[in-house]
Design a protein that fits this description.
With about 700 residues, the protein is an alpha/beta fold. Helices cover about 40% and strands about 20% of the residues. Helix 9 (about 340-360) links the parallel strand 10 (about 320-330) and strand 11. Helix 3 (about 40-50) crosses helix 9 and helix 10 (about 380-390) crosses helix 14. The longest helix is centred in the last third of the chain and has 28 residues, at about 560-585. The radius of gyration is 27 Å and the shape is globular.
């Protein structure tokens, strides 16, 4: 080939690459398109939610399988490569329930119907499963009634101090404050969930409404603890599983406010404390025991049922082996308009917008995985089985997990996250208008409200982020509009409730999709991961300050913890400088040929793996499945979010026993956390520990 021809060819190739460099839209251009009004579709969200909630769809039921098929078909229509991940898990369903109240000598017993009365015109209301607690112990119990407020540990301590004996009694507790699995029996009190009018006239729970749910205190299939429930796997017997501390030792039933008031009226004894009482126009709140006698009977059946996670994937172009995971669950105790299918509809909206971006030429840098989990309501089973099956891959490849469970239940934006995602979430919220006040961004309304802290943490086990954060150590977030809603886990959580009270225009759904989707896009597309560990160090410092007051006067040295947090702060500052230098270096011509992708990859790996370093293979004491030493649930409240859960468990035990050995356990847990934080600092700095001794040899 002549030299002039070679030269012309090189000029043509160079011109082509320069054309690509300057003509291809930037990732930020696509991100702006994702947020544009022309890309969002509140009517499509409404149609999806209506389809998802037309019938009750409890995990393991044919109706729930139909929901999975709908989600799979919809994702496929949006050009998302999708499949079903099946697991065979232990679920429970009610067989027999009865609750009989004998108010006192000579009074006629009351046999409660234990039935929610239909409200509105839902044609499938009669298909709702009878009210029960999943995994409740079968049995018959009878005894005098004792009122125990919210059924918290401190409530039972108060009863003991007042001389109220709960041994041999049937306990009545109202829902709220803590996870139902830590309460013997729940009753919804109008003070917390009721109003003068109720659904369908108003948003409040009708008097016959019942909040159902699980009382299993573990995560995942109880017959396969720690490994995936694939077909043909090793499986513990139901009897062996029930002997674990994660199962309740006594029978329980959820009951309605109306039934709870009838029982309350029959209780004698001392008046309850003022903060234990319900609404002013309700019954007189007394402690008991008796004279009323309750007879509770429950029997349930255990079955091995197939559940179906729907997994969709948009493969990354440059780093296909790095995963940004967005998830929510599909199963519901009844119709599930808020919990969970507002989140399902949001994920389908995100998928639709991503399909529009792909038609414009966008391809993600990293792989985006959309996950719709099954059997979440029974104990985060679908997500836990998937994480357990894919644990090693996720440990090395997952960038972050973004959750959207009860995505919309009312006004006001809320978010929880591991702290390195704080600034990313805030920045996304700045770019999206508040659906309830278009003159302000979500962020402006968010920080202008009285909510504190602005971003919560993920120590509780309330949704599918738990397996990712607390078992594997993957950075994660959860976000939603509204906080708490009165028809939670009842038959009234249907499309009509959402259309009338939760989000009449479905613009809150659009807004959540915008914030959640933008966070996912930035994690998938930005060359350097937008993590900020200075936020982490700052958050840990606040947690130590709280711990100082808890340990005061007990000779507990927190200096190892403070030093490790100081080291993390310095490491975070150092990697932030590296990030900035690399970003500045990537501007201009280096973006095409002369950048150093291996250096970017190594920096991102450190940012990604620093969260993993906060886990410990041994897990928490007596709760070894929970590996994260910074964020995990309280031992006495699975919903409670705790910093340093191992320290908290040891501290509660030490306060109870007040022995030197118990306080030494607190010191040991503090050292464990300190070491984990130091490990995270070393990961961020990419430094092996320096030699601490001089070795000489002579020949």
């Amino acid at each position: 080939m002549a030299a002039s021809t070679v030269f012309a060819f090189l000029i043509a190739v160079s011109t082509y690459f320069v054309f690509l460099l300057f003509s291809s839209p930037s990732k930020s251009h696509f991100h702006s398109l994702f947020l544009s009004p022309s890309f969002s579709d509140n009517s499509s969200i409404s149609l999806h939610l209506r389809a998802l909630t037309c019938r009750p769809h409890v995990a393991g039921s044919p109706e729930n399988s139909a929901v999975a098929a709908y989600v799979l078909s919809t994702l496929t229509s949006y050009a998302v490569e999708s499949h079903i991940a099946e697991y065979h898990v232990s679920l429970t369903y009610p067989v027999h329930r009865s609750l009989i109240l004998t108010p006192g000598e000579g009074n006629t017993p009351i046999d409660f119907a234990l039935k929610q009365e239909p409200a509105g015109e839902n044609p499938h209301a009669d298909e709702v499963m009878p009210t029960f607690h999943a995994y409740a112990k079968s049995g018959n119990v009878s005894g005098p009634v004792v009122y125990a407020n919210y059924g918290r540990v401190e409530d039972f301590v108060t009863l003991k101090e007042m001389g109220v004996n709960v041994s041999g009694a049937v306990v009545l507790a109202r829902y709220g404050q803590i996870y139902r699995g830590d309460i013997v029996q729940n009753a919804n009190d109008k003070k917390d969930y009721g109003g003068d009018e109720w659904f369908p006239a108003d948003k409040w729970m009708p008097p016959s409404g019942v909040q159902v749910g699980t009382v299993y205190n573990g995560l995942g299939d109880p017959t396969t603890p720690g490994w995936a429930s694939v077909d043909g796997c090793e499986r513990f017997s139901e009897d062996a599983a029930e002997k674990s501390r994660d199962f309740p030792a006594i029978p329980s039933l959820p009951i309605s406010a109306a039934d709870g008031e009838a029982i309350m009226k029959s209780i004698g004894g001392d008046l309850a404390k003022e903060d234990w009482r319900g609404r002013d126009d309700g019954p007189v709140y007394r402690m008991g025991p008796g004279p009323a006698i309750l007879n509770l009977s429950y029997s349930g059946k255990h079955v091995i049922a197939m559940i179906e996670n729907v997994i969709g994937m948009i493969r990354g172009e440059e780093e296909p082996d790095r995963f940004v995971i967005v998830g929510n669950h599909q199963d519901a105790w009844t119709f599930g308009a808020v919990d969970p299918n507002s989140g399902t509809a949001v994920l389908l909206e995100i998928a639709q917008r991503l399909e529009k971006l792909q038609r414009r030429g966008w391809k993600p840098r990293r792989t985006i995985i959309l996950c719709i989990w099954d059997a979440e309501e029974y104990g985060l089973i679908g997500s836990t089985e998937w994480v357990e099956e894919n644990r090693e891959l996720l440990s090395s490849k997952a960038v972050a997990y973004l959750n959207a469970d009860c995505a919309v239940s009312g006004p006001g934006f809320y978010s929880s996250a591991t702290p390195q995602l704080d600034e990313l979430i805030k920045d996304a919220a700045r770019k999206v208008p508040d659906p309830d006040n278009s003159t302000r961004s979500i962020y402006e309304s968010w920080v202008g409200s009285s909510k504190s802290p602005v971003i919560g943490r993920l120590g509780g086990g309330g949704s599918d982020y738990a397996s990712f954060v607390q078992h594997v150590g993957v950075p994660a977030s959860d976000m939603h509009f509204g906080q708490g809603y009165p028809v939670y886990h009842s038959m009234y959580d249907d499309f009509t409730w959402m259309e009338k009270f939760g989000d009449p225009s479905f613009q809150r759904h659009v807004a959540v999709a915008s914030v959640l989707g933008l966070v996912a896009l930035r994690l998938a597309d930005e060359v350097i991961l937008p993590f900020d560990y200075l936020s982490y160090a700052s958050e840990l410092q606040k947690s130590v300050e709280e711990l100082q007051s808890e340990t005061s006067g007990h000779n507990i040295d927190l200096s190892p913890l403070l030093k490790s947090i100081g080291d993390l702060s310095k490491a975070a500052e150092g990697i932030n400088r590296e990030k900035q230098a690399m970003i500045e270096g990537d501007k201009g011509w280096k973006t095409m040929w002369w950048k150093e992708p291996l250096k970017e990859r190594e920096l991102n790996d450190r940012l990604m793996m620093a969260e993993r370093a906060l886990t410990d293979p041994d897990g928490l004491s007596e709760r070894t499945w929970y590996k994260h030493l910074i964020y995990g649930p309280s031992k006495h409240d699975d919903y409670g979010s705790k910093s340093f859960p191992g320290v908290d468990d040891a501290l509660e035990n030490a306060k109870r026993l007040n022995t030197e050995e118990s306080w030494q356990s607190v010191r040991h847990e503090i050292w464990r956390v300190s070491r984990a934080i130091r490990h995270s600092s070393l990961v961020l700095m990419a430094q092996l520990t320096s030699c601490r001794c001089l070795i000489t040899s002579s020949l």
